[in-house]
């Protein structure tokens, strides 16, 4: 079964090997083609986030350097210069299709930190609901590991987990995964489909081939394994293939599909249940317990009668029914002190009491596991 036809929220990652003309500057025509395809998907109601490399290559060109430097501080400087060109180019391309774009620069640490994770998530989801195309790259000014290992593939997977996308499409300079690096073994067999996370896939994947890209196929295989943890399927395909995104969404079998075994919802709930430490306890009234259990709603401040513990926005709390029986766990949107101030209040009063609104609900249903 092909994953893209039914995917509503899609993360598309385009690698350095594709975005650039031999590592010197951007391939503007290629950017224009992907923008046209993404715009067509957006018109069909799909939500698309673009993770794009290319800042360093564009920076090298803008600075007039002949070749990519080795020193990390020079690579970082090139990324800072080139990122301007990258977003400028995408903005121009998407504007032709009547679409607005947004620049998001992230680090892996941002997504490991609970509060920043929630902040990044709500910004991205809000942008998608506004019909804006978020364009994401690594924040190369503050981290260097990714420049060293060339790994926007991992970033693509983390973003897929963050916004619970249905699929991650990694566009690169090969048709997909072969049983061995096709640059070294031209006869290597092509892999059309496999289960994400199978150890044998890692053995097939070698390092980067082009000298422009850096992570190679290995980081893509690991990215697929990570994406599968939130139930997303990964497709690795050639970004040079004519109409690649459109054809994938139409169900054509292009590239390598690495399929996730668990469903998106089951994976999210498992992750919430396994991975976070409990920081506080909320007691709910009977109406809120019913709404959570029977209608799968978010938890609003009005349904909470008591709050214990000290926690920050984004941390895990448990929810008890009036008799003290645990009914749910979830990631809370407000710090303990602010949660206490809005406890029992209708959502419309949050801003008047706190002076700001992070989110209308105390715990969003996507971040809630009902037990
Ligand atoms: N088993 C494999 N199948 C396909 N490509 C492979 C494999 N092992 C290594 N590669 C290499 O990975 C390269 C793609 O990775 P990379 O250059 O990092 O691209 P990107 O910039 O798109 O992330 C290919 O050009 C290819 O030479
Ligand atoms: N963030 C950097 C490079 C990251 C990178 O090369 O990643 P990849 O495209 O996976 O090989 C840039 O925009 O140039």
From TrEMBL:
Residues annotated to bind substrate: 53, 140, 152
Main localization, broad class: cytoplasm
Pathway noted in the entry: Amino-acid biosynthesis; L-proline biosynthesis; L-glutamate 5-semialdehyde from L-glutamate: step 1/2
Segments traversing the membrane: none
Matching Pfam families: AA_kinase, PUA
Keyword Cytoplasm among UniProt keywords: yes
SMART domains assigned to the protein according to its UniProt record, in alphabetical order: PUA
Catalytic reaction equation(s): L-glutamate + ATP = L-glutamyl 5-phosphate + ADP
EC number(s) given by UniProt: 2.7.2.11
Family per similarity comment: Belongs to the glutamate 5-kinase family.
Gene3D superfamilies recorded: Acetylglutamate kinase-like (3.40.1160.10), PUA domain (2.30.130.10)
Source species of the chain: Chitinimonas lacunae
Superkingdom to which the source organism belongs: Bacteria
Role according to the record: Catalyzes the transfer of a phosphate group to glutamate to form L-glutamate 5-phosphate.
Domain PUA: 280-363
Molecular function as annotated in GO: glutamate 5-kinase activity
Protein name, as recorded: Glutamate 5-kinase
Positions bound to ATP: 13, 172-173, 214-220
Compartments (UniProt record): Cytoplasm
Keywords associated with the record: Amino-acid biosynthesis, ATP-binding, Cytoplasm, Kinase, Nucleotide-binding, Proline biosynthesis, Transferase
Enzyme category, top tier: transferase
């Amino acid at each position: 079964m092909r994953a893209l036809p039914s995917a509503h929220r899609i993360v598309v990652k385009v690698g350095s090997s594709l975005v650039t003309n031999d590592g010197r500057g951007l391939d503007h025509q290629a950017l224009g083609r992907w923008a046209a395809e993404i715009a067509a998907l957006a018109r069909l109601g799909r939500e698309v986030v673009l993770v794009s490399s290319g800042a360093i290559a564009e920076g090298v060109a803008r600075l007039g350097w002949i070749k990519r430097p080795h020193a990390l501080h020079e690579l970082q400087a090139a990324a800072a210069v080139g990122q301007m060109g990258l977003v400028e180019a995408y903005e121009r391309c998407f504007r032709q299709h009547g679409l607005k774009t947004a620049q998001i620069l992230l680090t892996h640490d941002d997504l490991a930190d609970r509060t920043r994770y929630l902040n990044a998530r709500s910004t991205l989801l809000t942008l998608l609901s506004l019909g804006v195309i978020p364009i994401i790259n690594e924040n190369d000014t503050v981290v260097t590991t990714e420049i060293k290992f060339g790994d926007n593939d991992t970033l693509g997977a983390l973003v897929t987990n963050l916004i619970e996308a249905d699929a991650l499409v990694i566009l690169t300079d090969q048709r997909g995964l072969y049983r061995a690096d096709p640059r070294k073994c031209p006869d290597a067999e092509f892999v059309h489909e496999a289960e994400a996370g199978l150890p044998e896939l890692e053995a097939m994947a070698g390092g980067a081939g082009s000298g422009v890209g850096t992570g190679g196929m290995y980081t893509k295989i690991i990215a697929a394994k990570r994406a599968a943890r939130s139930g997303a399927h990964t497709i690795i395909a050639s970004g040079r293939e004519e109409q690649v995104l459109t054809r994938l969404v139409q169900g054509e079998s292009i590239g390598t599909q690495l399929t996730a075994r668990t469903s998106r919802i089951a994976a999210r709930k498992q992750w919430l249940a396994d991975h976070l430490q409990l920081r506080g306890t909320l007691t709910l009234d009977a109406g809120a317990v019913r709404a959570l259990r029977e209608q799968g709603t978010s938890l609003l401040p009005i349904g909470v009668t008591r709050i214990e513990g000290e926690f920050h926005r984004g941390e895990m709390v448990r929810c008890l029914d009036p008799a003290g029986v645990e009914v749910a766990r979830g990631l809370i949107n407000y710090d303990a002190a602010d949660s206490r101030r809005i406890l029992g209040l209708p959502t419309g009063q949050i801003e008047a009491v706190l002076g700001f609104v992070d989110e209308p609900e105390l715990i969003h249903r996507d971040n809630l596991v009902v037990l």
